[in-house]
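Below is the record:
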Amino acid sequence: MVDDYLHRIGADGPVPPTPDSLARLMGAHLATVPFENLDIHLGVPIVLDVERLVAKIVGRRRGGFCYELNGAFSWLLEQLGFPVHRLEARVLTPDGPGIHFDHLCLEVQLDHPWLVDVGFGAAFAAPLRLDLPDVVQHDPAGGFRIIDAGDGWYDLVHNDAPQYRFSRQPHALADFADGCVYHQTSPESHFTQGTICTLPVDGGRTTLSGSMLIRTSATGERTETRIDPYQLGPVLAEHFGVVLSSADLVRLSTDNRSVI
């Protein structure tokens, strides 16, 4: 299954547990596995079982949201010999931090401790050093800083905009179960309010939000195209590699709300 996973993300070949390999794996995962919440709107329960997560991403060639993507990726890293900790994070909004276990991110201990995340949509594209507090780390997505927020918490900041608050206390995947249920079921959850599927493309990003196909170029130019229901299947397949049944496409077509 490890080889199948590596083939899925286009990272075939030797991957020793080194910083260079970690960066290559993270970049490959972000580029090939979409961030998407389609199962929530299809009524398919998301259960934090590693075998099921890997089967979805590798066997069914789907994506997922943070618990799925970072849950599966952490398994892959462990199988390859990387020392991984699963970290609790809380998304920062104008109203304050989200719920506990709001987000799952990863710490990988190599020559330095590295923050890794393949499940936060448009975020950093390569691992960030955790031992460089308040130092701007430059990334294709911009400048990132990690700030000590006190009481064992740290804030990830992107171009001066707070992203999420995380603790470096390791957790088991099962610890995130309540957060995963909340984001599948609560009307307050961002993920129940509309469908999204997104991937970085050529330095920009392609996103399907509800019935709106949004393309952002590397220079920041943005175009929006409303798609008809009959176009949903071809758009998902062409832009994100997601192939759904006719019945699932009909269900999604009746829910064309945007989350952007």
Summary: The radius of gyration is 18 Å. The mean pLDDT is 95.
